Amino acid sequence: MPEIPHDIWPESTLALLLDPYRFISKHCRHYRSDLFQTRLMLRKTICMTGPEAAELFYDESRFIRNGAAPPWLLKTLFGQGGVQALDGEAHRHRKQMFMSLMSPERIEQLGAITAEGWRNYARKWAKMDRIVLYDEVNRLLSQSVCTWVGVSLPEPEVGKRTAELMAMFDKAAGFGRGHWLARLFRKRAERWIENLIEDIRAGRIKPPEESAAWVMAMHRDLNGQLLDRHTAAVELINVLRPTVAVSVFIVFAALSLYQYPVCRERLAAGEEGFADLFVQEVRRFYPFFPAVMAVVKQDFDWKGYRFPQGSKAALDLFGTNHDERSWEFPYEFQPDRFRHWEENAFSFIPQGGGEHYHGHRCPGEWIALELIKVASNFLARDLAYDVPEQDLGIDYRRLPALPRSRFVISNVRERV
Predict the structure, then answer these.
(1) Total number of domains in the chain
(2) pLDDT digits (tens, 9 = 90+) for 324-348
(3) CATH no. for residue 116?
């Protein structure tokens, strides 16, 4: 039985941090393999890329999520006790709670709330000299998603709550001061939502029964017990936080409209179906998070390689979305590639792969599609603005990656 190729370095954490989005695919090309083994944070890790590796990674008979995420990431990005770390029937039961919120009607409602937010913010931006789009969109989405889930967010609290929700993904993978800020802001947000859960259960407030706040507060586990208030809060934040994180994709959509003006023209003209193609290509082309983690459930062999029980595995999201075996000219921005795309749950994995209802594919993917589309249409059709000189180069060392300037606009005016 052949050995999985080993990285020559005894520890690769620093190399990963220096180039997180291209680390796995670069090494796989070097070893001419879809996988290699290294040490990350002193633990042996099998790194994988490509659609076949993705299909393997999302096989629940082979991999589990419990124990996969580093403890520091649980304290910032995911929260402790959330659905991401569950497996088996417990995961499927909890996942159904999230999927119940993802009906077309509910997502359309969120889109309408967010569209109104864009109109309100445009009027505010028209009075400003300089707008950092990333910062402003985080505020806009925080207000919109809080309204949608049934959480009251008075205007004086918008800045505070946006900072808390934003820090969980914007500073989650950082070290030093940024990491500790993310932990502090998560604790603050959890206390805020825990109090909300208590108020709902005590009848002091009653959001709509179809709202996420009500559903999370009243959800019962497999034993018929209400979730403890901390876990319920973590799960409600698991709706709020990733919705706000769509700001990353929206900034890249704005960048695409600027760098590929023909796309802006096609959106502005209302070309049938083009908005869907454009949104999918934004999600494929630009980086979001570089990889996801799992743990080998029990010993198994794949393509002649042995995967030992308890080993960590990392699946390359960015590299798989740019794999030449799946995508022609993968480093060119071509929305029309999706016009005849045969949907594949393992070659296109910007927010994870596999199946939505029973697997670990992100349940908020449909929200992301709707919100990027609302933003792209508004920026192309309803808003005029200038893009002043700035550094639009993408900082690939940052997690999540962003244009270095966060995309600055000026001279904003609404189109009549």
Answers:
(1) 1
(2) 999 999 999 999 999 999 888 899 9
(3) 1.10.630.10
